[in-house]
DNA sequence: ATAGGGTTAG
């Protein structure tokens, strides 16, 4: 093999690498082996770097094989590159094997393996190796310290980052630009932006290496701190603007909904010869998506394709999560289909957004589907996915499954405990919520404000007054958490529903926050239940003032008047709503899924095609359950009609129709699942109890607030 | 000659 041919191969590979055509370069390496040319050490190192960068593990392994065949492992640079290649491909155990098999180590070897552990979040192993390397031969240098810093800025706490920074200085090193970057990252993560500004000053005062990375990170810090002006001036003064800085600024404007500026910046950067990359497009797209501009977001997808690139996981997850957050759950599922059609593999973030969409739809079947998907793709061990699964199952009607997922989590986070407690709460299982709370405290996990919202909701839905009261007191006393309006609302609801209306009133008078609509709403609902007209009128007066266009308040009040047969007051309120032209109440609907179809029963919309048959079946059911003791509760009808008519109206409640249809269409013993968008009335609640007994079928009914589980008349 | 630490998008 003539020397010039070896040289040619090496040169071609190097040129490809330099032009960032990683895959081309790796292909060249393969071709070259067939012609038995020799690669130089430098080329191998560069190739291995490329494998680390693009995640080409298999190519990296091939190069490793080549290294072993040619006995190049004694070359320290090559072995060190192998360590780095494996750890960048998340295969730290292989990196460790290379490290352990080396006869000699250099300081770079130590730094490579420590960096590997730190970058994967294995901070203990990184620290152990750090201690091990300290010997007469080796002393940690600034790079070793920065490896620890970087690891802790990603996976550790803000405090540990600062401690390491101090120890680094104690060991006689001066923080360089990489150290500053890690500290900045920790600051952005925690949101201590004031300290970020101090660091900015520190960098300038100490004339630290003020390179393009530090500059970009500072721009990004100001963007994330909502100081777009400051970020823009800094960006403007950058000598060498890089694409990352452009992207950061564009993401800032897009996120704030200032799309004009974002688009102008995009044009400017193109004019200055920077081709937008995927991060640029995704920065723009996420803003559109999260603010509900579906069409614009979709058009960015097309612009990406037109620019010759392919929308990636982040692009699609943006689309999905934006839809979910705007409560367009169907869109979210639709985008997932499009994403799969484009052959883009979802990751755990995608799964979380999808599961949230299923929770929003309360669609158990879809949720189970996404769960299976996550299992197949190996995402169920991800703590975020697992926590979202708990949330999905408790919102879609399978508390048992939520509990199974919860128990399987190895290292539970505060969020997972909170979700599970909330799960019990929405099922009205207050005792279980309390037991779980106690277990959580025993594990040494400190509850936060959200924990107490969940716990108090549990007490509220189960009527556990004394317990709720005690927990409310302990919030401030034992845990030093200031109750928010949500906690006060739970208490008003708890007291009011139990009939302690005067106590609820006193409670409202004593609370240090200004009562908002939710507080008065809770009181009004309690007043309706217990038919207390005086307090109801006070609550309503406040509500009409706070939200004059919320029809639900007027309806509640009219219901109360009608229960007391005060029809002239009902008319008066009706006139008031006409004068104010309050939009009528949201349509009431229930739905149930039979096979792959969702059947919607709406109070106003068009009737179901099988309506006659359903009513026939329902009449049969009602006469059956009457024998078991069911009594229609005509107090649930707020029309000025006679009692026989009222009983007829009760039969037309959408949840009864949905339950009946579910029973008719499913023969098996599977539970019937019905979702209703508003609260279930007392009569339907009673009827469902008896139906579950008469038909020996479980019935799950989710209403606007919580879950009801009927089994054997319970 | 050729190693090790860093910036943006969900």
TrEMBL record:
Listed InterPro entries? DYW_dom, E_motif, PPR_At4g14850-like_plant, PPR_rpt, TPR-like_helical_dom_sf
Q: Name one matching Pfam family.
A: DYW_deaminase
* Domain of life from the UniProt record: Eukaryota
Asked if the record carries the keyword Repeat, the reply is yes
Biological process terms from the Gene Ontology for this record are: RNA modification
Residue ranges of the PPR repeats are 75-105, 106-140, 141-175, 242-276, 277-311, 312-346, 413-447, 448-478
Keywords tagged on the record: Repeat
Annotated GO molecular function terms are:
RNA binding; zinc ion binding
Keyword Plastid in annotation: no
Give residue ranges for domain DYW.
Answer: 629-713
Cited PANTHER family: DYW DOMAIN-CONTAINING PROTEIN, PENTATRICOPEPTIDE REPEAT-CONTAINING PROTEIN
Q: Which family does it belong to?
A: Belongs to the PPR family. PCMP-H subfamily.
The protein depicted here goes by the name: Pentatricopeptide repeat-containing protein
Look up and give the organism this protein is from: Quillaja saponaria (Soap bark tree)
Q: What is the lineage of its organism?
A: Eukaryota, Viridiplantae, Streptophyta, Embryophyta, Tracheophyta
């Amino acid at each position: 093999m003539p020397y010039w041919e070896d040289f040619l191969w090496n040169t071609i590979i190097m040129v490809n690498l330099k032009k960032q055509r990683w895959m081309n370069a790796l292909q060249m390496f393969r071709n070259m082996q067939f012609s038995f040319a020799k690669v130089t050490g430098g080329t191998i190192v560069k190739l291995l770097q490329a494998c680390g960068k693009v995640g080409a593990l298999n190519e990296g392994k091939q190069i490793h094989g080549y290294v072993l065949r040619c006995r190049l492992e004694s070359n320290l640079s090559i072995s060190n590159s192998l360590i780095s290649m494996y750890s960048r491909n998340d295969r730290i155990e292989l990196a460790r094997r290379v490290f352990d098999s080396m006869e000699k180590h250099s300081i770079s070897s130590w730094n490579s393996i420590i960096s590997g552990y730190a970058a994967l979040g294995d901070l203990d192993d990184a620290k152990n190796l750090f201690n091990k390397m300290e010997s007469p031969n080796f002393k940690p240098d600034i790079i070793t310290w920065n490896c620890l810093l970087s690891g802790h800025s990603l996976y550790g706490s803000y405090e540990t980052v600062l401690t390491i920074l101090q120890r680094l200085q104690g060991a006689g090193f001066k923080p360089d630009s990489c150290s500053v970057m890690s500290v900045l990252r920790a600051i952005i993560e925690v949101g201590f932006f004031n300290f970020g500004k101090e660091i900015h000053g520190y960098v300038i005062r100490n004339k630290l290496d003020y390179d393009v990375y530090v500059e970009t990170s500072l721009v990004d810090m100001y963007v994330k701190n909502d100081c777009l002006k400051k970020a823009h001036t800094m960006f403007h003064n950058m000598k060498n603007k890089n694409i990352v800085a452009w992207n950061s600024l564009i993401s800032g404007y897009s996120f704030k909904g200032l799309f004009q500026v974002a688009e102008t910046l995009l044009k400017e950067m193109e004019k200055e010869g920077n081709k937008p990359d995927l991060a640029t497009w995704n920065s723009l797209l996420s803003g559109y998506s999260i603010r509900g501009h579906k069409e614009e977001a979709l058009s960015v997808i097309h612009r990406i394709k037109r620019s010759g690139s392919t929308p990636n996981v982040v692009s699609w997850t943006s689309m999905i999560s934006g839809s979910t957050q705007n409560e367009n759950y169907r869109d979210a599922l639709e985008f997932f289909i499009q994403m799969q059609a484009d052959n883009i593999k979802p990751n755990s973030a995608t799964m979380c957004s999808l599961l949230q969409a299923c929770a929003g739809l309360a669609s158990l079947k879809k949720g189970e589907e996404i769960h299976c998907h996550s299992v197949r793709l190996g995402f169920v061990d991800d703590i975020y996915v697992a926590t979202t699964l708990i949330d999905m199952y408790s919102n879609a009607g399978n508390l048992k499954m939520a509990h199974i997922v919860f128990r399987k989590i190895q290292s539970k986070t505060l969020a997972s405990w909170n979700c599970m407690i909330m799960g019990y709460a929405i099922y009205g299982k207050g005792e279980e919520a309390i037991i779980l709370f106690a277990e959580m405290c025993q594990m040494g996990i400190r509850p936060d404000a959200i924990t107490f919202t969940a716990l108090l909701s549990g007490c509220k839905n189960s009527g556990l007054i004394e317990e709720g009261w005690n927990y409310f007191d302990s919030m401030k006393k034992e845990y030093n958490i200031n109750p928010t309006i949500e906690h006060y609302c739970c208490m008003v609801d708890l007291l009011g529903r139990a009939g302690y209306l005067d106590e609820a009133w006193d409670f409202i008078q004593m609370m240090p926050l200004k009562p908002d609509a939710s507080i008065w709403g809770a009181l009004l609902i309690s007043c309706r239940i217990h038919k207390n007209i005086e307090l109801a009128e006070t609550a309503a007066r406040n509500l009409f003032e706070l939200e004059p266009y919320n029809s639900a308040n007027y309806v509640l009040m009219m219901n109360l008047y009608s229960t007391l047969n005060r029809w002239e007051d009902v008319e008066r309120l009706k006139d008031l709503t006409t004068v104010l032209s309050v939009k009528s109440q949201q349509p009431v609907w229930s739905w149930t899924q039979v096979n792959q179809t969702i059947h919607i029963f709406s109070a106003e919309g068009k009737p179901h095609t099988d309506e006659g048959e359903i009513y026939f079946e329902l009449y049969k059911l009602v006469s059956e359950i009457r024998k078991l003791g069911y009594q229609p509760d005509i107090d649930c009808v707020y029309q000025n009609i006679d009692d026989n008519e009222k009983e007829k109206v009760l039969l037309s409640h959408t949840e009864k129709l949905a339950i009946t249809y579910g029973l008719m269409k499913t023969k098996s013993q599977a539970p019937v699942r019905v979702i209703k968008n508003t609260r279930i009335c007392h009569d339907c609640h009673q009827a469902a109890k008896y139906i579950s007994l008469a038909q020996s079928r479980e019935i799950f009914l989710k209403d606007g607030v919580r879950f009801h589980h009927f089994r054997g008349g319970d």
